[in-house]
Design goal:
There is one protein chain. The protein is α+β, with helices and mostly antiparallel strands. It contains five helices and four strands; from the N terminus they run αββαααββα. α1 crosses α5. The chain starts with 16 loop residues before the first helix and ends in a 5-residue tail after the last helix.
């Protein structure tokens, strides 16, 4: 029996601008609660920017890092940035090679935004510790519901 034909078109779910703004707002509220100034970037499922904010006092370099964290998550089908190191630490060629890939971030602060199992987008946060950035990103991602 032949395999079923693969369709020529794939439809994907993605965040709306309104949802991205909500993610940004909730992430900023969590950052304020933790008393840390961060940059927050929200991307759609293809990694394109939808919303961005830089809190007063957030490091300037954190702007690009937050965007790269969101992009890294979207570019690798929703793999959170904090999971990267454990995946590559035992493979020296990857550990010393893939980290030179432009825009790839392998430390905490980038998480997927999902609903009903679908990758809708990603949120990247930078400016605090990796743990703070991750907690802030996760709070923002949780603002989206199906």
């Amino acid at each position: 029996m032949p395999d079923a034909p693969v369709p020529d078109v794939r439809r994907t779910a993605t965040l709306t601008y309104a949802a991205a703004r909500r993610v940004l707002a909730v992430a900023a509220e969590e950052a304020e609660r933790l008393r840390v100034a961060v940059c927050v970037a929200v991307a759609d499922s293809a990694g394109h920017p939808l919303a961005f904010g830089r809190m007063d006092g957030a490091p300037l370099m954190s702007a690009q890092i937050a965007q790269d964290k969101a992009y890294s998550v979207a570019a690798f089908n929703g793999l959170p940035t904090h999971r990267w190191y454990d995946l590559i630490s035992g493979e020296p060629a990857l550990l010393h090679g893939i980290v030179h890939t432009e825009r790839l971030v392998i430390f905490g602060g980038g998480v997927p935004v999902r609903a009903d199992g679908d990758l809708l987008g990603a949120v990247g946060v930078s400016g605090g510790t990796a743990e703070q950035d991750r907690a802030i990103a996760e709070a923002g991602a949780a603002a989206v519901t199906a």
